[in-house]
Amino acid sequence: MAVPPERVKSPPHTVLLVQPEVIVKQLTTGDLEETAQDWSREASENAARLMRALVKKSSAFEVVDDGVLTPTEKASLQQYSALYVRLMTSIAVSRESKNPVWRNRVARFDYTVGPGINGVAARANADAALFIVGMDHVSSAGRSARAAGGILLGILTGVYRLPKAGTAFLSLGMVDLRSGDLLWVSGDYGGGAMNLRKEKDMNKVLSELFESYPWQPKSADKDNGK
Amino acid sequence: MANRYRRGFSALCVIAGFAVIAGCAQTQPRKAPAPTPLEPVGRIRTPEGWVQERNAYHQLLASRDGYFVQTIFVGARINSDAFPAIKKSAEPGMLPSQLAELQIANVKTASGEKLEVVEDEPAELGDLSGYRLQFRSFDGRGLEFRTIVYGAADERYIYRMSYNAPMLYFFDRDLPAFEAMVKSFQRGPIPPGESGWAIVSLDLIPTEKDKEKEKKK
Hints:
The complex is a heterodimer of chains A (226) and B (217).
Chain A: E1 14-17, E2 21-28, E3 32-35, H1 37-58, E4 62-64, H2 71-96, H3 100-108, H4 116-120, E5 128-138, H5 148-157, E6 168-176, E7 182-190, H6 199-210, H7 219-223
Parallel strand pairs in A: 1-4, 1-5, 2-5
Antiparallel strand pairs in A: 2-3, 5-6, 6-7
Helix pairs in contact in A: 1-6, 2-3, 2-5
Chain B: H1 12-22, E1 40-44, E2 51-54, E3 60-63, E4 71-78, H2 96-111, E5 116-125, E6 128-138, E7 144-153, E8 157-166, H3 170-183, E9 186-187, E10 198-201, H4 208-216
Antiparallel strand pairs in B: 1-9, 1-10, 2-3, 3-4, 4-8, 5-6, 6-7, 7-8
Helix pairs in contact in B: 1-2
């Protein structure tokens, strides 16, 4: 899902990769879940590294690292990441709504996080910001698949009620750093077959999601190094 | 592997959370629409361009970008069932400050004390004297939210409307639209021949059976 082409003057050339936030939850006794910090960090770092490689291969845009930002700016950007999660969830819900007005709202695709993000990320000198957010959880054997709604709600609130088997969710979203407008969003939630702690799975999901990026260079452009 | 945005997702829990903040809803709206007709007790003009819906308890919901971003709730209750979480009534002759106190207690009980009151002031709601409260809360990712709740009671009903949005960008952007809606409120049904109004209906009160069902969920 992306902003209609007529509203994009030029595709982003340089994109700030915001520190991905892939949360891995672990089951504890008594059906409670807690965040597995090490696994979360590993999955998030994998996501960043694999995304960079994917973008480099496609030549879709140049990735700018967030290392140029101050800790305060990075913290502010994480707030925008949380806001992005809200928008992304709203879009996912609206798409599935029985109310056609909500579905039409998605088709219009005029979502924004506001122009304030421009000031936060100005030092990166990028055209857009790319958010990667996700959630996975380690399951005990034999548990049934978690409902998709539960996964999304978990992403949103960080709280789970009834932990179930290993299911996961990952979303990519791009925001224009001049206007704050959401340019593109893509999300995937799967059953136990998707394990974001595995590099191979992460790469596969990222590749699938990135396929819907609307400004992929044509193969001739790539061949000519454009 | 891929189930890309294909599976349905219920927003009911989140919507219900905001309804509890407003103090005019049950813990979970029922999924099936209630067959009973609305009981109009007032009218308002909802913000232009917002999606407007009614839940199974006859409360009016409105949002521009989706209920995970911003939500307006409008409802009314009979005074004897005004504050269900603390099982208190709105008594005739109560001062707005007394109503506000009960409203805060009701919200805190329903939300598990996770909300901080940052404003508590008198306000007009139509031709009634009432209260305007502002609460602060945070979501699971540390994003700050603000909720405004207006309320006022007459001899029969308590009328309430609330607005909830993230402080980052959305709260200030959409607050004027909510305040304009609040200013438009009038008691009584929509006069014949007038258009552009949305009905403020009495909330449907859940039966004990409904409550049991919600508990099981």
